[in-house]
């Protein structure tokens, strides 16, 4: 997996407060990375039972999209385009990601499709699960102009170095401190010595890349999501970005969001960056074996 060079950022917009917070967050990212922004509004005609909900909004939506695009250009000197689609919200967003070679999606965790406290909206959840590029989910209540203290939970996985390489540019552009939280499932004894080697390798890479770091460990149990969320809540220096990855469903050969990832996405009160790994192991045992070889090679 190559370093994430942000040149094209897509922002799904439904004109809710949360989607506007996501847009402000995206424009801040675009300024730092010299990236362009594309706004996407989807007229959800996937609902056959309530056609009156989307019969008259196309013209108003197009006009508002144009106004927003001009504001992004004028206020931030950022190249900004927009598109209007009709159809399934998730499907339209995913198709536009592929058509436009999008590098990053920034979207509100909740929108006009419905909001439940502590839960991401269905569209945000589906996009983060299915999109091939990284997805940044922005919680309600505020926009985020920078990421200075990034929490990066690490489990023994061959995709771990991929994920670090992917987000290295974001770390550098924000001059951020990276908090590595090493997690070990107590059911896998073999993970312990691999984690020790992995930490040594990471320390070398952080020193080479001039990354400011903090390293912690959690080996007590496998309640990783609860520990991560508690760390976010109780940290003296508040975290402002949390990085997680989608998991691979080996029998189905597809990606899914594990209960661990789901809980974090739904309950985190800071932005969550969801990344999909490129390396796909065949089993846990093979993954640990590959990881040990990867560490030895570095």
From TrEMBL:
Signal peptide from the UniProt entry? none
Residue ranges that the Swiss-Prot or TrEMBL entry lists as coiled coil? none
State the CDD domains in the record. USP-like
Instruction: Read off the Pfam families from this record.
Output: Usp
| TM stretches of this protein | none
Record-annotated UspA domain positions: 7-139
Q: From which domain of life does this come? A: Bacteria
Which family does the record assign? Belongs to the universal stress protein A family.
Q: What is this protein called?
A: Universal stress protein
Q: What is the lineage of its organism?
A: Bacteria, Pseudomonadati, Bacteroidota, Chitinophagia, Chitinophagales
């Amino acid at each position: 997996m190559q370093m994430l060079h942000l040149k094209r950022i897509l922002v799904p917009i439904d004109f809710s407060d949360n989607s506007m917070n996501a847009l402000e967050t995206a424009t801040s990212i675009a300024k730092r990375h010299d990236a362009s922004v594309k706004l996407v509004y989807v007229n959800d005609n996937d609902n056959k039972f309530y056609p009156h909900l989307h019969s008259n909004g196309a013209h108003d939506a197009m006009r508002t999209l144009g106004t927003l695009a001009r504001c992004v250009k004028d206020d931030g000197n950022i190249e900004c385009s927009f598109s209007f689609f009709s159809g399934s919200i998730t499907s339209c967003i995913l198709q536009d990601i592929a058509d436009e070679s999008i590098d990053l999606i920034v979207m509100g965790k909740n929108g006009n499709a419905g909001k439940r406290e502590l839960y991401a909206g269905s569209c945000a959840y589906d996009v983060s699960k299915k999109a091939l590029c990284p997805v940044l989910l922005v919680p309600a209540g505020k926009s985020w102009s920078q990421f200075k203290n990034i929490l990066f939970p690490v489990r023994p996985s061959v995709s771990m170095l991929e994920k670090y390489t992917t987000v290295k540019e974001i770390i550098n552009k924000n001059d951020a401190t990276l908090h590595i939280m090493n997690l070990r499932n107590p059911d896998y004894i073999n993970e312990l010595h691999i984690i020790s080697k992995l930490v040594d390798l990471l320390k070398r890479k952080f020193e080479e890349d001039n990354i400011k770091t903090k390293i912690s460990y959690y080996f007590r149990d496998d309640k990783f999501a609860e520990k991560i969320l508690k760390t976010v809540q109780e940290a003296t220096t508040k975290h402002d970005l949390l990085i997680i990855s989608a998991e691979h469903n080996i029998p189905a050969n597809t990606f899914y969001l594990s209960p661990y990832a789901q809980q974090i996405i739904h309950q985190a009160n800071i932005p969550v960056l969801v990344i999909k790994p490129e390396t796909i192991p065949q089993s846990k045992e093979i993954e640990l074996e590959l990881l040990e070889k990867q560490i030895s090679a570095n």
